[in-house]
Amino acid sequence: MAHLEFVTLEVPSLAEAERFYAAAFGLDDRLRLHSSNVPTSGFRGFALSLVVSQPSTVDSLFGTAVEAGARPLKPVAKSLWGYGGVVQAPDGAIWTIASSSKKETGPPTRKIDEVVLQLGAQDVPASRRFYVEHGFEVTKSYGRKYVEFSQPSGPLSLSLYTRKALAKVAGVSPEGSGSHRLFIGGDVEPFTDPDGFVWVAAKES
Q1: Where are the coiled-coil regions (predicted)?
Q2: What is the CATH number of the domain that holds 19?
Q3: Which of 1, 24, 27, 88 can bridge 65 by disulfide, Cβ–Cβ 3.0-4.6 Å?
Q4: Total domain count, the chain
Q5: Is the four-CA dihedral 186, 187, 191, 193 of positive or negative sign?
């Protein structure tokens, strides 16, 4: 079964991006960075979501991201599904920080339980079929709107939204053009999906 192992973001300044992500989130090798100034404009078609256990963790990560230079897109708040907010990193990548719990469940921590790569698809059913044909296993699917894939090991997973729905979650316009400035590493043979997201073989990276 195919699965996701890491993501690589293309960033304008490698040194600045390294400083930002170390200060903001403290992510490990699930996130990789590559220096590049390839042209892009508007929404890049994806978001990364940090899933945590309680509101205080959301507040802590959101706060350090903003202090490190991120731009708030949606302030932290309670909603029907839990508690969370959205920021845009200085390199342009969009990060949602969320907990399904609206109440504290333990002592304050900065532990990130899961990182979810959310891809915006023009045609979710077609992209779903494409990923299944490339060895991914569906665990949740809501018609033409959302798909979640199985992740056999590790705290990094993959989901599909419609591009418009994902932009709404992120608090941005769905319009955009140019490179995604994202490479996805997995237990796969290299391929490019219907929306132009490039996958590389993790064993070769």
Answers
A1: none
A2: 3.10.180.10
A3: 24
A4: 1
A5: negative
